[in-house]
Give the backbone structure.
Amino acid sequence: MAEKELTQRTAWDKVLANLRKRSLWMLHYCTGCGAVELPPTMTSRFDMERFGIMPMVTPRQADILLITGYLSVKTLKRVILIYEQMVAPKYVVGFGSCTINGGMYWNSYTTIKALDRYLPVEMYLAGCMPRPEAIISGFNSLIDKIGKGEANSWKDYYENYEFYKKNQDHVFGDIETHHDVPADGRYFGILEAKR
Amino acid sequence: MNAQTQAPTTSRPPAATGAPRMTEALVSAITAETGIATFRTKSPRRIEGTVQADALHSFAAALRSRVGFEHLSAISCVDWIAEGEFELVYHFWSYRDSHLVSARVRIPREPGSMATITDLWLPASFFERDIHEFYGVVFQGNTDLERYILSDWKGPPPMRKDFSSRDFAHEHFTFKDYEPTWDELIDGGYHGQKRQGEGSDE
Amino acid sequence: MNSGIGLIVWIIAYPFVSFSLGVLLGGYGRKLTARIQRRVGPSWIQPFFDVVKLMSKKTNVSHGYMHDVAMMMLVGGTLLTMYFVPVPGFHYFSQFGDYIVIMYILLVPPLGMALGVGQTANPNGSIGIARALQMLAGYEVTFVLTFIGFAMKNGTTSMYELMMIQQSGGVATWGLVTNPLLGVAALFCLQGMMNEKPFEVVIAPHEIATGPMTEMGGKYLGMMFIQHLINLVVELTIYMNLFLGGATNWFEYVAKLFALFTLVMSVNAVYGRFRTDSALRFFWKLPLPMAALGVILIMINGI
């Protein structure tokens, strides 16, 4: 699908993507210990702002949703509510081993194991914890992907909503969010394009 | 004696005055005032003892109103699965004497029922709700035993000893498709055991 | 330049010029803050990337009619103010409205913001608006007082004429030199007007989640960013025209703009955030008596 998207891009899209990749605002959802690696990444030592990446405080303003650490079933529900409030295009970045496969909470009865079953994850940063160098390297590859127009995993949430909804329902029972996801998908022009 | 009339929730017990008492003096005071004589000193400033389940309420009321233990510090629970019993431990703290009283109560594991003390200490509701959620103990008379932390929990109470967190996690959640080998180095490995035991890898 | 084709070109081009200046100023401010904090800092035109990114987002959230219209009021009010503030080579509109008119239309953007944020019904936004109005009570009185004193002294309320009077004798006739009390008091107010630290309590990202902007995403936030950048230029220009003698050419104008902004951002970079009550106490204890004293001195000398 990525190749197809790539060939369909107009010149304007390319210019836009190259401007857009210079400004990424992230909302960091600090549930786990991973948040402790972010202050050095943002401040003088590593200075994330030189790539145009800034911390933002509300989901409406953010482009990146950074999940730093484990998600229990209860917090996953909040994360889904936050994710659906974000304005597209939006990128979920799983940060640390916990989001990949449970990490040290491998056997825990309330933490979810693979984040990409509940939300479309654009990129994982492996490590427990990833050092600031790894975070910056990861964000640089995300910037490259956005510049090339390959960072399209957020569309997957609207295209394959049944899959995500089924998994969410499996852990929550019936979850009720504030957004009509299929309607949003039609608004973004994703569902028409598929038909 | 009727505990409810002696220590209503609305009125605080009379403020304790005078010099702090020593541990031995406190033990004898507790024995004399509550009529329960199984208390001993565990360490300086800690007193510990066993109370019968049906006597706990009147004991707590007397302890609060007559000996001056005004503060309910915590309620904790231990699952003694071999003996088929839950042990509830009530911690009371005296501000004047700076002493902690731990009262241990054994209740049968089935049905796991205990009288509430929320009429003495309203904050006890928090601990009772927590224990109800994690051990399944029902506190008779507590009207607020809703789910607290495990809001979408569908399994059995998870802190019981017969609950296997590992099995529950593997039944309930989906892992990524890879077979880790690092855990075999530590404890034989869950996946390794499964493979040997069942002869199939899923 | 203030008639015919030249005027039309100015009217069309000026918003873009102003926006470009705002982008440069905003980028410079962020870079300066970063250098003070010993960081590398973002690109020099980072606000431009931010605006392009925000305007290209697919915005699926609208809280209703007022929410949309408020953004128009926000940008429109700021653009209107911008036209009335004289700059070198373009002072056509300033003959129709003096500073009192500017004072009125300067209130349109905050009003628009209040209406729009009110419709989003976000508590953080409402707190931000309440704080903005409280801060207004802090600096607006003082700023108006400084202007009244200055206008009394020179016998005119037209910003263009005030600017010309100051330019008549070089640095010695600048408002800041002839009326240092008023000039310094207004400098404090400028810091409050621009919502920079220590008077940042309206935005307060760690406290009320950027206040009025909490519920704004995508294009709404893009409009607010554009407004913010133009507002930067407008507010600095107002202070410049009143107390730094305006400017005779664009080179001088830009130089003064950046110099003034350097001062504002340097204070911003090293200060923490005052609480609302602390900020109000500060405004009413130091700049307000200063401005009042300045006005009294002018009245005594003038009579």
Notes: Chain C touches chain A through 32 residues (CB under 8 Å). Chain C has a mean pLDDT of 85. The CA atoms of residues 181 and 293 of chain C lie 8 Å apart.
